[in-house]
Amino acid sequence: MAMAGAIYSRVEQKTDGTSSVLTNHRRRAVAVATLFIFGFLPLILYFIFVHDPFTSKPVVCGSRETTIGESQDYGSKTSGAQSIFTIDRVSSQSFPFWEAKLIDTIWDLFVGRGMQFLASALSYTVLSDALLRAIQSSPVPYRTFSGISINGASATTVIALIRDLGRHSRRRAVFLFTYSALAIIYVLAMPTLLSTMAGYISTASAYVQVPETSQYVPNSDFVPGFSFQGLSGVANGTCMSYKDAGPADARTATQLGKCNSTCWTVDLDDRYHTGYWAYIKEHHNMDGCAFFRNETYDVFKATYDEFGFVTRKSTKTETYNCNDTVTIDVAGKTFPFLTAVRNSTKTNFQIYTSGTYCYGTRAYQQQQIDANTKCLPDVGSGNDDASTYRWGFSSLLSSIVLIVHALWCISMFAVWMDAQKGGGVGGGGGGAGGGLDQLRALFTVAAVACEVTEMSAAQLAKAPRGVVEKVLDGGAGSGGGGGGGGAKVGAELFEMDEGGKGGA
Known about the structure:
- The protein is 46% helix and 18% strand.
- The protein is α+β, with helices and mostly antiparallel strands.
- It has two domains: 2-49 and 87-199 and 394-493, no CATH class; 209-377, no CATH class.
- The radius of gyration is 40 Å and the shape is rod-shaped.
- The two termini are 16 Å apart.
- The chain crosses the membrane at residues 29-49, 142-162, 174-194.
- Keywords: Membrane, Transmembrane, Transmembrane helix.
């Protein structure tokens, strides 16, 4: 007994020294810092770096330039509950499957499980202090005490808290342990939530189902152009791309601008006052006009983009006679360019008019293409052309999870602050007892079990588990200190006696 007293004295001295260093002021400072770093900082950084976090963005699988400097994106469209789980913020870089899977595994292991580990440790500290605070007012069921203090954040603890809700004599205790059950459920769900809000998706490309067919072709196969109507020997709706028409278009525009002709209905010099493109549209007549003989004009050799505009102009030029007819081939037939344009949807020279696109030799309208465009996964055909994936997260679900996490941290901080007001029994609020930990909880549980069952520790170790549980948890036939309602843990076990020794 003297040896036991000496050991207790050393433990008491060590506990007193530790608690004196970690003052209440420092504990609160650490709690506030933890609240900010663990609760607020992830949310703050998320809203700084993610634009429109509550708006689910279509995952762009392709785009088309609709006019100079403007483009239209194509992507998968989601709405309602579907948008919550859509991975819409993805990396610009694509990965082979094994790399995407590795990134996802690292996220689940270090972020998901790491966050759960920290949340579990925080919840144990907070709920243990709150448990000691509750014991000051009234005893708590043995099952509730052992669940929080020994099992921590676990499904067993949640079940114990729910089953014991009807055994509390105070509403405050009912509220506290209801909250504790919900808080632990969040801790248990955290890895699943973090895993659900992130993931990888297969890279995709925009494909168009060709109207009136079941064929899908890449979106890029549809190129800007114009169609012909009423051109002799050519089916209506035959299409020509602006790129193919570019050389003849540029040559005709130069011919009209530099050569004297009967094509103009007013003085050609007025074009500089009215604006050239408006002028050329309204003040020339392509029917029956003729160019003067013995005149020439030069045209630069150039290449043209999909809109028929010059992308690269050479210093070399080609010289043409003004009265030579500029021709173009349409559906295997040759026509004067002015005649072809007169029977087409192209009304202006060297001006792109959006809305018509060519696939093969047939014209389709923009609305038809948009209505039939879908994002289809890229399928690899070999080791050098394997399917790739992009890793990302759901912006809407991430916003919800991070807000819920911040609210959880705020509520835990509030519960912890409330627990500190009472100082706790046995040092629960930072007093001499040093608060509650699993070792101290085991001693307390053993003391209560011995008292209620009137058995020694050695007898309890050998007793049938089911019988002891019935007595402690309030099953049929229970008696002793449980009073027919199961064992309870009271404040007397944590109070210091006159000799400085606790009841437990």
